[in-house]
Amino acid sequence: MRERAERRFVLVTVLMAVWIFSCALGIRVHALEKPDVAAEGAALYNATSGEFIFEKNANQQFYPASITKLMTALLVLENSAQNETVCFTESATAHLESGAVSLALKSGDKLSVKDALYGLLLKSANEVANGLAEHVSGSVPAFAQRMNARAAELGCTGTQFQNPNGLTDAKHLTTAHDMALIAKACFERADFREIERSTVYHIPATANRPEGTTIVMGHKMISPGSSLYYPGILGGKTGYTSAAGNTLVTCAERDGVRLIAVVLKSRSTHYKDTKAMLDYGFALCRGAQQPLPDAQNSSERSPEQNAAAAVLRESIGPQGSAAAPSVPESAAGDVFEAQERTGNAMVQAAGTEDSGPGAVTPGWHEKEGRWRYGKANGVYACDERLVIGAFEYWFDASGLMITGWHQDAAGAWYYLRPSFGGMKKDCWLQDGGKWYYLGADGRMLTDTVTPDGSRVGADGVWTE
């Protein structure tokens, strides 16, 4: 009788243990449910262990668009010094697709390899890719052959590159699996990671842009000022063509685990899909879900990222009123805006009033917190846009410098930085959780596709 009772106790104990373990396992399986990815092709790669931990049509071929430039950058870094000079030719700069992203380079322009790489990876400039290809291999076709040979060395089996930029070609194809392997090789390089962690960069003067060009990283998960910022991110590359849809490669690292997410043929879900995969991957590697690090912890950001975040948070919005103007010089501690400027010292004239041509000292003049600009002909800038140093400024009919959002007579919106009045151009601007894109001429884009392949509506707001 006693033995039967003992056996019953042991059996009950075992059953309870099995039940408890099953419940715990059920909770864990639910917590680590595989991500729901809408893109047609995707892969999540653990670059630390060498394992693919999520795949969706990962070996199916798709058009890569500008994520092609990862391989271009890898070959350039492996075969060039960053202080070398790239001389851009007619073949590199002409005959790009209509609407293709560029730095407006022309034949005869010269950039260092370093500047060109920033233009390639942050701006995704297509003629820059061509110029780098010619610099390394003498011609685009010869460089494409090297791209394919390097891809094969990395273990790629479904990739065929035809050009260094990713512009549409029926034979220019890759897979999510292959792009993860290429990205792994890229992010193993410290010089590549250095470029990728940058959110802003100033390209020196060129023939078409004598004041140079300030470019902003197109990948929205990299900037701490973005609502899409992903803690632990190391970098990535965006891509878009009408044939490829949205493509995206993203690399992030936490607790010594480096993950690479690849999205191909997406219809504007590329960031959502990427976050879902990365969240899943890090949770899987930890063995349990943990709270994500605070995305706004400035101690985890580089000084450059903190500066970029400050720039992105300047806006007040198209529906708001213009902010009160402040001193028209770089904001204190704002590295981005300070580096953009090229000179033009601010000149104060106590109480000076204009009384005709020649009466105004050239330079900046402040009165009661408002700023005017004296032109070389001795009159104030008035009811006009004026390039001063590295920036374009706008002055109203009374000669006062305009800041904040400003609408012209045709109804187009522009944004003049409240910190010093310089017009923002060719970049994204965040306003209260909404994103707007300001074109190369400063005009807010509406009801179109931006240069990095994102869609903005009739009100200018980015549509996810």
UniProtKB/TrEMBL annotation:
It holds the Pfam family Peptidase_S11. Belongs to the peptidase S11 family. InterPro entries: Beta-lactam/transpept-like, Cell_wall/Cho-bd_repeat, Peptidase_S11, Peptidase_S11_N. Cell wall-binding repeats lie at residues 425-444. It is an enzyme of class 3 (hydrolase). Keywords: Carboxypeptidase, Cell shape, Cell wall biogenesis/degradation, Hydrolase, Peptidoglycan synthesis, Protease, Repeat, Signal. Residues 31-266 form the Peptidase S11 D-alanyl-D-alanine carboxypeptidase A N-terminal domain. Its EC number is 3.4.16.4. The keyword Glycosyltransferase does not apply. Coiled coil: none annotated. It comes from Moryella indoligenes. GO terms for biological process: cell wall organization; peptidoglycan biosynthetic process; proteolysis; regulation of cell shape. This is D-alanyl-D-alanine carboxypeptidase. Substrate binds at K237. The keyword Membrane does not apply. One of its GO terms (molecular function) is serine-type D-Ala-D-Ala carboxypeptidase activity.
